[in-house]
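Give me C-alpha cells for this 295-residue protein.
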Amino acid sequence: MASTILSTAQTTQNLTLFPEHLMMIGADLSSTDWSFLVEFLKGMAKPLAATVVVLMAVVLSFLQKLGLEGEMVYSMVRAFLQLSVIGFVLQFIFTRDNVGWIVLAYLFMVSVAGYTAGQRAKHVPRGKLVAGVSILAGTSLTMFFLVILKVFPFTPRYIIPVAGMMVGNAMTVTGVTMKRLRDDIRTQINLVETALALGATPRQATLQQVKRALVISLSPVIDNAKTVGLISLPGAMTGLIMGGASPLEAIQLQIIVMNFLIGASTVSSILSTYLCWPAFFTKAYQLQTKVFVSA
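Here you go.
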C-alpha cells in the first residue's frame, strides 16, 4: 500500500514537472536553432551584395541581345540554394567523426559527376556509366595514396573538400575525353574502317584519335599546374590565406592538391577511353555505325 502511494506521488510529481521539462527543452532547441539561423542569414548579407556584378552581367547580356539573362539568374539562384544546402550538410558531417559519412558524401559526388560528364558525351552509349566508373576509379586510387601516405588526416574536414576538387576535375576531363574521342572517330571514320579492314585492332585503329582526345582534355589541367601562382591563386590556397594561414603553409597544401588533381584526372580520362571501346566496336572489330550517325 505504501509503495503504491509512493509510486502515485512520484508519478504526480513527474507529471507536474513534465511541462517544465518540455519548456526547458523547447527553449534550448529554439535558442540554438534560431541563433544558428540568424548567424547564417547575417553571413549571407555579403554574398547577396556581391550579386550586383551578376545583375551587371544580366544588363549587359540584355543590351547585347545575347539571350542569357534568364540562364544567368537561374544559375545564380541555383548556386545559392545548392551551396546553402551543402553548407548545412557539411556542418552536420564535420561534427561527426564517422567514416560512413565520408564515403557516402564521396559516392554522392562521384554519382553527380558521372551523370554530368555523361551528359556532355551524350552520344556515347552508356556514357553516364562509363564516366561514373572512370571517375570513381581515378579518384579512389588517388585517395588511396592520399590516405596511405598520410598526407591528410582521414577526417571529413580534410578528405571531403580534397575529394570534391579531384572529382570535379576528373568530371571535366572525362567528359571532354569521351566526347572528343567519339567526335574524332566520327570525323575520320573512313581512316578507322580502313585500318580495321587491314587487320588492325580497335586500339591500333583509333590510336591517334585517343591520343588527341587525351591531349586536348588534359592540357588545361597541365597548363594550370604550369601557371599556378603566376597568373592566379587557386581556391585552396586562397581560402587558407584568407583564413589567416601562412602563405608558406598555403603553397604546401596547394602543391599537394595539384599533384592529386593531375593524377586523378589522368587515370580517369585514360580509363574512359578503354571503357568506350565496347560501345564503339562490335565483337568482330567493326565500327558500330549507329553510334556515329548523329552529329
